[in-house]
Specification:
About 95% of the residues lie in helices and about 0% in strands. The protein has about 100 residues and is an all-alpha fold. The chain has one domain. The longest helix is centred in the first third of the chain and has 52 residues. It starts with a helix and ends with a helix.
């Protein structure tokens, strides 16, 4: 049994390292892209509010622009959830290797 666990730990170790590296890269990319997405979301929401208040667009079109802004705002949060899931799997594999 000990030999089987040792072999399994040696097989899982590179997968854990790859998952950690992917997690770090995704954290960096999400950090950079979140600034762009938040600015874009702010512009969508600002334009939709201003054009609706000035009477340049109808209600449904302003709502569509606001929904696009909301989607741009939520996208980095979805990426953070994915990074959290990858980190949890990596931590669980690390706990198995250390046991």
């Amino acid at each position: 049994m000990f030999l089987l666990r040792l072999i399994l730990k040696m097989i899982i170790f590179p997968a854990m390292l790859v998952l950690m590296l992917i997690g770090w890269i995704l954290v960096f990319l999400i950090g950079l892209s979140s600034v762009v997405f938040y600015v874009l979301a702010g512009l969508f929401l600002l334009v939709s509010a201003v054009t609706f208040l000035m009477g340049l667009t109808a209600g449904p079109e302003a709502l569509k622009m606001a929904a696009a802004g909301f989607v741009c705002f939520i996208t980095p949060h979805a990426g953070n959830a994915l990074v959290g899931l990858i980190g949890a799997v990596s931590n669980r594999l690390m706990q198995f290797i250390m046991s």
